[in-house]
Design goal:
Layout: H1 6-9, E1 11-15, H2 31-35, H3 38-44, E2 48-51, E3 55-56, E4 68-72, H4 79-91, E5 95-100, H5 110-115, E6 129-130, E7 133-134, E8 140-141, E9 155-158, E10 163-166, H6 181-197, E11 202-205, H7 242-253, E12 259-264, H8 270-277, E13 286-289, H9 312-324, E14 334-335, H10 345-348, H11 355-370, E15 375-379, H12 401-413, H13 416-429, H14 467-470, H15 477-490, H16 492-495, E16 499-503, E17 510-520, E18 526-536, E19 542-543, H17 547-551, E20 559-563, E21 575-576, E22 581-585
Parallel strand pairs: 1-2, 1-15, 2-5, 5-11, 11-12, 12-13, 14-15
Antiparallel strand pairs: 3-4, 6-10, 7-8, 9-10, 16-17, 17-18, 18-22, 19-21, 20-22
The structure holds 1-O-alpha-D-glucopyranosyl-D-fructose (TEU).
Residues 61, 64, 101, 149, 169, 206-207, 263, 265, 340-341, 402 line the site of 1-O-alpha-D-glucopyranosyl-D-fructose.
C-alpha cells in the first residue's frame, strides 16, 4: 500500500554482531563481516537491518553498556566501517538502524566518571544518587529495597562520595537521570543526532519505557520474603514523565524521518501500550511487547528462570491479543518470536526431538510469523531454524551476566531443587542460546571464524543447520522463510495489514486463524481477500478444519496457497501431518 510508511510492510532483521560473521579471525564478529553478508540478507528478503550495540564498551552486558556513543568498539571495526555498512545497505535499497541504549551508560562512560568524582561535580545530577538509610542496628542500607533485573539490589555504594547510585541492570550500568534537561539534551545531541547525521535510518530504542522513574524513591511491597530485594517495576516502568520524554525523542527523530522501535517490557496492558504507538500521539513508530516471547518464563524477577510450562491455547490467546489491540486505533504492531534476550523459537515453541520434526516445526513457525499483522522482525539464525545450545553443554558455557547472576543466586540459596530448576530453565530460556555463532556452512568453524578455539562463544556442530546446507533446497527452513517473506509482501493487504480472527481457541493441537484485508488486483481494483492459516502444533496427525466454512465461501473458490510439508511427509487432503502448516485463501 503506497500510502503507508515504508517500515510497515518491511521485514526487519536483527544482527547480533559479535556472533554474526568474523572477518579477521579473532573469534568476534565484526562490521566488515556483516558488510560481506548484506547480499545474503538482501536475497532473503530483508529490508532493514537492526544491529545490536557496536559502540565502545567494556562488554559487561555485550555492549548494552556503552562507554562512548561516538566510538566503535575496536573488535567490531571503525566508524568508516559503519559508513560503508550504511552505504552498502542504501545501495541495495535497504535501511540500517542502530541500537540506542540510553536508559543507562557504562560506568566507564566519561559522564559517569565525572558524576562519581565528587558530590559537587556539574554532572553529579546526570545519574541518580541517593544517601544511605540505616537500619535499627545502625547498618548502612540502600535507599530502597528494589531488586534489579540481573539479581541483587538496584543500588551500588560509592565509597568515594558516600552515596548510592541507581542501576536497574548490572552495577556497571548506572541509570541516567532523565529528570535533568541538560542530560536529555546531551543524549539527543551526542547519541541520536550524531548517528542520524551520519545517515542511519533510525533506532531500536532500548528499555524505552523506563526513563521516567517515580521520584519518591520508596520501598516496594514485599513479594519475596526470602530476599532483601523486591521486584519494583511500578517504580520505573511507564513513569510520570515518560510520554513527555518520548515526545522529545520524537522531535529529535522527526527532521530525519527516522524510524523508531522501542523496547517496552513489563507492560502487559494494551491500554498502556497504545499511547506509545498512536500515530496522533507522535511518540514511537513501533514497540516490542513481550508477552509472547516471555511465555515459559517464571516470575519476572525472582523466578525468571524457573520454567513455567504453557499450553498452545495460551500462545494463541496472547498472539491474538497483540494482533487485535491495534484494531480501530491509529496504532501499529510488531511481530517477532526471537531476539538476543531469549531462547530460540524452535526450541521453545516447536519440536527439536528429531531432524524431521525440527524442520517441520521451524517451517511452521515461519508460516505463523509471516502471516501476522504488523512489522515483522527476524532474528539472525531464525531463518535457519537455529536451536538452543545442545543439552549436553554444562553451565560453564553460559556467559551472559543475567544467567551467571541468576545461577549464582540459586547456588547461594543452597536449595538443591532451586539449583536444578534454574539449570533447567536456563537450558530453555537463557539469553546465551541466541548468541551462539551464526552458521554459514558445515565446516567445524561453521564459517563464523577460522579458529573455533578463538570463538568468543562455543560453536555448536549439529549438521544441516547452516546457510550452505539449506540454500537452494526447497525443503529447507531457509528457503521456506524466503518464500514466506515474498508471499507476505505480495499479499500484504491480508498478511501485513489485515485483521486477525482466531478460530477454535480451545483446541490444544491445531491453531487456526483468518486474516482478512484488501488486495489490489493487476488492473488496480481493490478487492477483499481472506486467508485461513491452519497449523498442527503436535506430532500427531490432525483433522483439517472445514476450509470453505472457515473462509465463508464455496469450496471451488478456495485454494491451497502454501503448505510447510514437503515430499513424503505431506499430509492427506483433510489431514495435517506432524507440525504441518497451510494457508488457504479465497483469492
Ligand atoms: O533489555 C531490557 C529488558 O528490560 C529485558 O526485557 C531484558 O530482556 C532482560 O533480559 C531482563 O531480564 C535490554 C536489552 O535487550 C538487553 O540485552 C540488555 O541487557 C538490557 O536492555 C540492558 O541494557
Amino acid at each position: 500500500d503506497d500510502r503507508q510508511p515504508w517500515w510497515k510492510a518491511a521485514t526487519f532483521y536483527q544482527v547480533y554482531p559479535a556472533s554474526f560473521k568474523d572477518s579477521n579471525d579473532d573469534g568476534w564478529g565484526d562490521l566488515p563481516g556483516l558488510i560481506s553478508k548484506v547480499d545474503y540478507l538482501h536475497g532473503l528478503g530483508v529490508d532493514c537491518i537492526w544491529v545490536s550495540p557496536i559502540f565502545e564498551s567494556p562488554q559487561k552486558d555485550m555492549g548494552y553498556d556503552v562507554s562512548d556513543y561516538q566510538k566503535i568498539y575496536a573488535p567490531y571495526g571503525t566508524i568508516e566501517d559503519v559508513d560503508a555498512l550504511i552505504q552498502t545497505c542504501h545501495e541495495r535499497g535497504m535501511k540500517l538502524i542502530l541500537d540506542l541504549v540510553v536508559n543507562h551508560t557504562s560506568a566507564e562512560h566519561e559522564w559517569f566518571q565525572e558524576s562519581r568524582s565528587s558530590r559537587t561535580n556539574p554532572k553529579r545530577d546526570w545519574y541518580i544518587w541517593k544517601p544511605p538509610r540505616y537500619d535499627a542496628g545502625g547498618n548502612r542500607q540502600p535507599p530502597t529495597n528494589w531488586r534489579g533485573y540481573f539479581a541483587g539490589s538496584t543500588w551500588t555504594w560509592d565509597e568515594h562520595t558516600q552515596e548510592y547510585y541507581l542501576h536497574l541492570y548490572a552495577s556497571e550500568q548506572p541509570d541516567l537521570n532523565w529528570e535533568n534537561a541538560e542530560t536529555r539534551e546531551a543524549i539527543y545531541e551526542e547519541t541520536m543526532r550524531f548517528w542520524l547525521r551520519r545517515g542511519v535510518d533510525g533506532f531500536r530504542i532500548d528499555t524505552v519505557n523506563k526513563y521516567s522513574k517515580r521520584t519518591e524513591y520508596i520501598d516496594a511491597a514485599v513479594t519475596d520474603k526470602n530476599s532483601p530485594y523486591q521486584a519494583a517495576p511500578e517504580m520505573w516502568c511507564n513513569g510520570p514523565r515518560i510520554h513527555e520524554f518520548i515526545r522529545e525523542i520524537n522531535q529529535v527523530l522527526a527532521p530525519f524521518s527516522a524510524v523508531s522501535v522501542g523496547e517496552l517490557s513489563n507492560t502487559p496492558d494494551p491500554k498502556q501500550v497504545l499511547p506509545y504507538v498512536s500515530t496522533r500521539a507522535r511518540e514511537l513508530d513501533m514497540v516490542f511487547e513481550f508477552s509472547v516471547i516471555r511465555l515459559g518464563n517464571g516470575d519476572l524477577f525472582t523466578g525468571k528462570y524457573i520454567y513455567k510450562p504453557f499450553t498452545l491455547s495460551q500462545l494463541k490467546a496472547l498472539t491474538e491479543k497483540w494482533q487485535c489491540f491495534i484494531e480501530g486505533t491509529d496504532s501499529w504492531a510488531t511481530v517477532f518470536c526471537e531476539n538476543h534476550d531469549n531462547g530460540r523459537a524452535v526450541s521453545r515453541f516447536g519440536d527439536t526431538s528429531t531432524p524431521e520434526l525440527w524442520r517441520a516445526s521451524a517451517r511452521t513457525i515461519a508460516l505463523w510469523q509471516a502471516t501476522l499483522t504488523g512489522t515483522l522482525f527476524l532474528y539472525q539464525g531464525q531463518e535457519l531454524g537455529m536451536t538452543n545450545m545442545p543439552a549436553s553443554w554444562d553451565i560453564s558455557h553460559y556467559q551472559d551476566v543475567e544467567a551467571v547472576n541468576f545461577f549464582a543466586e540459586a547456588v547461594a540459596s543452597r536449595n538443591e531443587q532451586r539449583i536444578q530448576a534454574t539449570k533447567h530453565g536456563l537450558s530453555i530460556l537463557a539469553r546465551d542460546h541466541a548468541r551462539l555463532p551464526f552458521r554459514w556452512n558445515e565446516d567445524d568453524n561453521v564459517g563464523f571464524t577460522t579458529d573455533s578455539a578463538k570463538s568468543w562463544m562455543r560453536i555448536p556442530r549439529e549438521k544441516g543447520i547452516s546457510v550452505e546446507s539449506q540454500l537452494g533446497d526447497r525443503t529447507s527452513v531457509l528457503e521456506f522463510y524466503r518464500e514466506m517473506l515474498r508471499l507476505r509482501k505480495r499479499f500484504q493487504g491480508v498478511f501485513v495489514f489485515g485483521t486477525h480472527t482466531l478460530l477454535d481457541r480451545e483446541n490444544e493441537s491445531t491453531w487456526a486463524y483468518i486474516k482478512e484485508g484488501f488486495l489490489t488486483t493487476k488492473d488496480g481494483h481493490r478487492m477483499r481477500g481472506r486467508a485461513l492459516v491452519v497449523m498442527n502444533f503436535t506430532v500427531e496427525r490432525a483433522p483439517l478444519v472445514d476450509v470453505s466454512a472457515a473462509l465463508g465461501c464455496a469450496p471451488e473458490s478456495t485454494r491451497l496457497m502454501v503448505t510447510t510439508a514437503c515430499g513424503a511427509v505431506r499430509g492427506a487432503k483433510d489431514e495435517l501431518s506432524a507440525w504441518e502448516g497451510r494457508i488457504y485463501c479465497d483469492f
